[in-house]
Design brief:
This protein is mostly helical. It starts with 23 loop residues before the first helix and ends with a helix. The protein contains one helix and no strands.
Length: 50
């Protein structure tokens, strides 16, 4: 018998409720890391075109 799709525990995949409690320093590091990765990808694209 398949599980009940209306069961709220079925859709709880272990998401962290304390995700909003990230400190400003950790949030800044995450934004900085994403920015560096995007910049590296754009630079790689520009170098490959030239």
């Amino acid at each position: 018998m398949p599980p009940d799709p209306n069961d709220p525990d079925l859709w709880d995949w272990g998401e962290d409720e304390d995700e909003d409690d990230l400190g400003p320093r950790r949030h800044l590091l995450r934004v900085l890391l994403v920015g560096i990765i995007v910049l590296a990808l754009v630079l790689l694209l520009v170098v490959s075109v030239l």
